[in-house]
Amino acid sequence: MNDNEIVKDFLVESYENLDRLDRDLVGLERNPDDKEALAGVFRTIHTIKGTCGFLAFNKLEKVAHAGENLLTLLRDGRLALNPEITTALLGMVDAVRQMLKVIETSGHDGEVDYPELRETLKRLQTTAAPAPSASSAPVNIVPVNIVPANVVPINIVPANIVPATIDQVNVASANKAEKTIVAALAETTAETAALKSPSPASSLPPSEIPSPPAPHPTAPAAPTANKAAPTDSEGRPREASSETIRVGVNVLDKMMTLVGELVLARNQLLQTSSTMKDTGLQAVSQRMNLIATELQEAVMKTRMQPIGNIWNQFPRTVRDVALGCGKQVRVEMEGKETELDKTIIEAIKDPLTHLVRNSVDHGIELPADRAQAGKDPSGRLILRAFHEGGQVNIEISDDGAGLNLDRIRRKAVERALITAEQAARMPEREVFNLIFLPGFSTAEKVTNVSGRGVGMDVVKTNVERIGGTVDIQSTPGRGTTVRVKIPLTLAIIPALVVTCAGDRYAIPQVSLLELVRIEADKVSTGIELVHGAPVHRLRGRLLPLVYLSRELKLANDPASPGEAAAGAAVNIVVLQADGRQFGLVVDQINDTEEIVVKPLRKQLKTVKTFAGSSIMGDGRVALILDVLGLAQRANVVTETRDRQLTEKAQQAGSTAENKRTFLLFAGLGDSRMAIPLSSLARLEEFPVTQVEMSGSQWVTQYRGQILPLIRLNVVMEERRNRLRALQVPPAADSGPIQVLVLQQEGRLFGLVVDQILDIVEDRADVQSAATRPNVLYSVVIGERITELLDIPAILRGADLGAVRPVPLAKTAEVAN
Amino acid sequence: MAHSSQFCTFYLDKLLFGVELKGVQEVIRSLEMTKVPLAPSVVSGLINLRGQIVTAVDLRRRLGLPPDTSGARPMNVVVRSEDGAVSLLVDEIGDVVEVEEDSFESPPETLRGSVRSMILGVHKLKDRLLHVLDIEKACQMTDAADAAAGL
């Protein structure tokens, strides 16, 4: 390890600490008595200061020192935290951060030493306690004073063994001088600890300093030991540093690529081995399959980061914005631990920040206005994140004034984005979405926060770039909710593989709504033409049809799709792009598969209908369809939105809030049952021949594991008949069974139902108590009484016997 | 001794072409190819080269030569371009030849059109001419190139 690496470590650690500082300081402002948080803040600054002295970043040290002095007074209770002090301290954090940036780029701490800031910090100090302390000041100053005694010998040691030396010193001091550390400030890094407990450090015989050849084995261990010590002595739970190591992102990326290759090779191996009779080979390839799957899962996990990592900066952002416009805002967070792939986290950071700032600046009203409206003067900003259907939902809600429909309409007309006539006809939901148009801003005055005409459209583009969607809902006087839906990961995605004109294409599952098959004898009635444009009536609504072979200019273009399709069954893949549905007609629907996304070469980037390519199990390349690009090409997206608008207008009566999405399926007899869509991992169809009996339990092999199948008709059968029903083996002559693959407490199991009906969004707020076991309660969905299944109860009741539900899946899609 | 260089040679419509050997990654037999609908016509498709997806360029089309009617499956000359590996589809592979610098001559003025930008010149071999291809130019596959190639 050389000087550069020490500096790099210092930077990384300091950045992390600073992020925590922002959080802690804002937290402190609300709860000034939190001694522990204050101690944490103090410790961080102290550490930075100490390390700066060590690395000779004098200007940075000066700034940190000024902040530290102020913090000392706060910590000792001789000064109470007020907004002015917090602002000054946050200013110091910013200054430190800037200087760190300079260090990162240039290697020294720059020319600026922030005299005004230091002056402010000093002035704030003296307003309360003019005497610069007696008891605690030495703690700050002494280490600096005793520098000659301790640091000099270390400095003259060859640079590469310094960390090891520090480690030794620290361990020694941690043991011998534990009391000192506890009583004092428990340093995060070793060197300052060493400075503070001079006796053990200086009494350390030179022989204990490891000799130069040794540093490499010891050096990596040093940071671990450093961090472990303060945690123990302090008892303050911090990240389990000793359990973690830092790994470069490029290493992870490389691993991800290699795992992608492995997954492909695995797919090919499975395909090859299935054609061979060699049982040995098959066993090995099965095992390899499992290992590769687990490895893929593990590597994906290394790239997953909790969304809290970016949210943590928001309290600070909100505080600054709120202070700037004289508002009071509380930030609440739910689902901080929700994990996302690192690349996605990075991609959504800016859009989310923008949305948060917007909510504070535009959404939440001034305290006086709020009081007048009968609301709590301080507004609430709620950040929620949760998984649903293989995607992550992020919601940013405020309880502010809500969007002003008329103002948006007016503005849009003013900016010539739409005509006055269009504006008048446009339903609410559509009006909200106008704010995502480029060049739109409703802010009456341009603030430094928002209202400069860039913003929401950029948010939308950025989110869509990573395959996500943005949706906005608002109730005047009650607040606004922006919902961002994004995929978990970009590298390996579940996709539906279809065939068209002899070639296979993969369709990302996120855009997939459902599959519809029109049998040959129904084609003539199932596909109708609206002035030449083919449509299909899907549950009473017209679904525009897009022929893939035609869009891709494959095969012989049928003169009239309606006619050409006659004589053969038609497979329709119902897709969603930019909020609109359309049916994609393909020759054949193959299967769903996990595919590794490989970007297309630059030369092919111009082809907007493809999002990338992937290698299939047989080693051939398949193209991944870009559903949005395809929809644009087929004019689905730009076409009149009337149908969807009327649909929305119907919904507009009921507030969109609190709506939940349910999967509806047929219960026993004529009854209807539902489960929340969020508990569903996938819908599958298995041929009866794949169902096996394990005791009286139906099971099937699902993605290389055993999936227990619970039959709805058994579950809902009266208790006395249940045993008999349970014994029924699958009827060999029946068609394929419909299975809802559910996840519950990290386990997967299948629920066999007779018929899947629909997916609906509904408030479902008319409830009545359950009349039978395994039902949570009855609700009214779409004007029909629907029983909501109690999934945990079913799982408890079902005697799964020897068959344990499979551990939570490998796919990102069902990750919890 | 004059400076000499090595060329990987191949045949297209009975003409002898060559690319500098150091720009060639490998030469492989015909592989399963996936069509790319809507792509420029010079793109024959995508091939799986040991897990790497490589674009295959129909070099006959790129050079404005008539399509191959023999029915033989083309060979892949995988070259390294700025944008990664690209496979050039050729009729037949020739030898690796070593040529002297002084046998080189620029293309005659009478060679016109976009093809001219792709052909750096010719080496006068004993019994025939070796057309030297510019790899970067040959790997471009924009629609503009299509138009220029008279397609």
Q: On the 0-100 scale, what is the average pLDDT of chain B? A: 84
CATH-defined topology of the largest domain in chain A: Four Helix Bundle (Hemerythrin (Met), subunit A)
- Rg of chain B, alpha carbons: 15 Å
SSE string of chain B: EEEEEHEEEEHEEHH
Report the uncertain regions of chain B: 143-151
Question: Can you tell me about this structure?
Answer:
The complex is a heterodimer of chains A (816) and B (151). Chain A has 816 residues and is an alpha+beta fold. Chain A has five domains: 3-243, HPT domain (Four Helix Bundle (Hemerythrin (Met), subunit A), Up-down Bundle); 249-302, Helix Hairpins (Orthogonal Bundle), CATH 1.10.287; 306-487, Histidine kinase-like ATPase, C-terminal domain (Heat Shock Protein 90), CATH 3.30.565.10; 493-652, OB fold (Dihydrolipoamide Acetyltransferase, E2P), CATH 2.40.50.180; 660-814, OB fold (Dihydrolipoamide Acetyltransferase, E2P) (Beta Barrel), CATH 2.40.50. Chain A is built from 31 helices and 31 strands. Residues 129-241, 444-454, 559-565, 639-657 and 807-816 of chain A have low confidence and may be disordered. Chain B is mainly beta and 151 residues long. In chain B, 13% of the residues lie in helices and 46% in strands. In chain B, the strands form two sheets. Chain B has a six-stranded mixed β-sheet with strand order 8-1-2-11-10-9. The longest helix of chain B is centred in the last third of the chain and has 6 residues, at 143-148. Residues 143-151 of chain B have low confidence and may be disordered. The chains are: A alpha+beta (816), B mainly beta (151). Chains A and B meet through helix 14, strand 17 and strand 18 of A and strand 4 of B.
